[in-house]
Fold this protein.
Amino acid sequence: MSQASQASSLLSGNEAIARGAWEAGVTVATGYPGTPSTEILEFASRYKEDIYCEWSPNEKVALEVAAGASLSGARVIVTMKHVGLNVAADPLMTLSYIGTVGGLVVCVADDPGMHSSQNEQDTRHYARLGKMPILEPADSTQARDFILLGMEISEKHSTPVILRSTTRVSHSSGVVTLGERARRSPPGGFVKDSTRFVPIPLYGRPMRVKVEERLAAMKAEVSSSPANAIEWGDRSLGIIAEGIAYQYVRELAPQASVLRIGWVWPFPDDLIREFAAGVKKVLVVEELDPILEEHVRSLGIACEGKAVVPAIGELSPDRLAGPLGRDGGRFSASQAVPGSDASEGLPARPPVLCPACPHRGIFYALGKFDVVVTGDIGCYSLGVFPPLKRVDTILCMGAGISMAHGMQKAGEKRKVVGIVGDSTFFHSGITGLLDIAYNKGASTIIVVDNRTTAMTGHQEHPGTGRTLLGEETISASIETFGRACGIRNIATVDPYDITPTVEVIRKAVESDESWLIVARSPCPLSMKKNPGEPRRVNQELCRKCKLCLKLGCPAIEWVNDEIRVNELLCGGCAMCEKTCKEGAFQVASGACNES
Ligand SMILES: Cc1ncc(C[n+]2csc(CCOP(=O)(O)OP(=O)(O)O)c2C)c(N)n1
């Protein structure tokens, strides 16, 4: 890639963050995949001659690796989705005390509207909790600029900096004027200083005081930061907006006065006061929680906010049209908030497991047993939908294992089966499995090992044998981890082979000991190869019992009173053939679909 020769380029927010890291002279980038943040690190890895990039097993590890790199003097970014920050919160809270040496920016992508997340969490709370600054870009240019600014703030104040993106900023594109990579001398190496880097209470208490001094210093400069700016217009209405909400405000109320906030916390109090003094009334437009709004009120400034701007879900020009007025600026606090949503009016397309997905075999097999299934987050969460309906709970990554143990210890009468994916197992499943073995649990854990992190777009993980940079490496064994944890009953099955899979599950759920079953078959999408030839239905043999429909395969259709296979969709996994007692499913090239 000839970075220097390009003057400008159309970049997504995530691509711009990666570009910003390269321009800022970042030499280490770590993370764990999670929509909408995933592409940041994938784009950063395109600069692999300059930036070492890795998928870490989870976000906590990613942040700790980043912290080590920073303490050695390197500039570093670490990437994750909002729930990933919960996993990384432990190191982050104390890294705030220790501080940074090389600039460290934690790039967190929130998902207002829960497009691909189990909750809707506002990362700005973490900045306050950890007493560290947070920047929020409104477009791709700011995404790039704020990485550069974040590095400066981080190094000047010795603090980790959070960059909060959202789905809309991460995944929409804008033209970015490209810069050169900063010329920086190589990281100077770690300089020992226990009073600075070892927060035992003796050294930690002075660090605690320094955190407050640091906050005061940042407060003194945040109002004059280029990240925050007043755009004076019609003074009858002043809108304070941040992140993507700023774009919607500019579109809907082009003539209004706007205070655009990009350095969100510590709050730019002086600027907020100056702005409020210059307008007749103030409206705060922010996505998710009323963090700014409450602060503006705490300054003694009357304002409107969540009384008219939705607090739940993603904002959009449509959803703000009521509060702001389509033709701009006719804000009235009494106007109703429309309940419109981007997907309104579109036909519902419930998510389903892909045709030939190996996870289907496990859910179909589990349908034969009266068990409780504690599921997890990954493609297999789709086993919750009919006709499979074999996922009873989901909490967070890893909980599929630990919740099974909890239910069993609470005396659940039915056998409890926990399901996690391979990436999830390495992320946070191993300690749950260890708990089961250590505390003499009796649940059955199934790791659906499709050899990839499928749900977020097929990233590598410690079990795949490859790194993010495309190098060959170890392939961690789930069975070996199970044995090391102390699980005595371990079996490996091919989930496409339904009958043997059912028999292994039967053995496990009838036993009064814990079991680890590894259901291994690669994801056909990541292999870019179907497992077999498409099937067809021989109508002469089909008895229309509809047992095959229980697989929930999108390729099997009930049309005109007949079972049919949509050969364009069929991946040839042959699970239908294995469930059909009449032998009606046959390889398409050698059978007839119609009678
Ligand atoms: C703490 C956290 N980090 C990241 C994610 C995003 N995410 C959802 S599922 C998943 C892993 C999916 O991979 P795997 O467990 O192998 O299951 P697969 O989708 O391949 O079936 C990830 C990274 C998340 N939900 N929570």
Observations:
- The pocket of thiamine diphosphate is lined by residues 32-34, 81, 83-84, 87, 377-380, 397, 421-424, 450, 452-456 (CB under 6 Å).
- The mean pLDDT is 94.
- The CA atoms of residues 374 and 412 lie 12 Å apart.
